[in-house]
Amino acid sequence: SSLRTSLIAAGVGLVLVMLFLMVMYLVPGVVASLALALYTAMLIGILKAFDITLTLPGIAGMILSIGMAVDANVICFARIREEIKSGRPVISSIETGFSKALSAILDGNITTLIAAAVLGVLGSGTVKGFAITLALGVVLSMFTALVITRIFMNAFYALGAHSPKLYGEAKEPTKFDFVGKKAIFIGISVV
Predict the structure, then answer these.
(1) Which residue, 61, 46, 50, 57, is CA-closest to 116?
(2) In terms of Cα–Cα distance, which of 102, 97, 94, 86 is closest to 156?
(3) CA distances from 92 to 29, 73, 79, 97 (A)
(4) What confidence category does residue 118 fall into, taking pLDDT thresholds of 50, 70 and 90?
(5) Is the pLDDT of residue 148 over 80?
(6) Rounded to an integer, what distance in angstroms lies between the CA atom of residue 58 and that of residue 36?
(7) How much is the pLDDT for 170?
């Protein structure tokens, strides 16, 4: 029952994330949603092919790796928006955006892979299941974010999605004086 409920929650969460991406990022959001659907199908296919039993910790690893995949796409899309805002053509912005996002994506995912390796080596049964699912998911998320999403973005551009408006507009960062309000934040932390 818990396993079934967790799978339903993961599915609902995935659909909500896809809808959010499409609303926030327009064409890149549609591309990311397609890549996430493909990512999820590949991950489930690999788990099935290697007969990996899906436990609650395994589902948690899967959900976390979906979050990593979304994060990688958002980093790429933010870079693409910045390039478009600076006046570059869309196709050039796509290439430069992916190139500039590469180091941040690799840093975050390699760090997570190291943590998964440590959990896999030092952990017990259910922790190992979490580590295996997380590691598989992170490797697949890097592949889908850096290869599949890039291919899909170029395909959408080739199909006629040339307008910079379809890729969203970079917004000025919101300025908030965290240091000036440090007493409030320290008080909240203490409480």
Answers:
(1) 61
(2) 94
(3) 19, 17, 12, 8
(4) very high
(5) yes
(6) 18
(7) 67
Q: How far apart are CA 185 and CA 169, in angstroms?
A: 31
Contact 81, 26 (CB under 8 A): no
**How many angstroms separate the CA atoms of 153 and 97, rounded?**
11
- Confirm if 103 and 90 have CB atoms less than 8 A apart: no
Those residues whose C-beta lies under 8 Å from the C-beta of residue 162, and which sit 6 or more positions away, are 90
Question: Which amino acid belongs to residue 96?
Answer: T
Count of C-beta atoms within a 10 Å radius of residue 173: 6
Give pLDDT tens digits for 31-70.
999 999 999 899 889 888 988 777 788 888 888 888 888 8
Average pLDDT, rounded, for the chain:
89
**Burial class for 88, CB neighbours closer than 10 Å (0-12, 13-18, 19+):** middle
Task: Give the separation between CA 54 and CA 95, rounded to whole angstroms.
Answer: 37
Six-digit token pair at 178? 């965290």
Q: How far apart, in whole angstroms, are the C-alpha atoms of residue 50 and residue 152?
A: 28
Report the alpha-carbon angle 17-23-27, nearest 5: 100
Token readout for 110 is 């390699």
User: CB–CB of 149/32 below 8 Å?
Assistant: yes
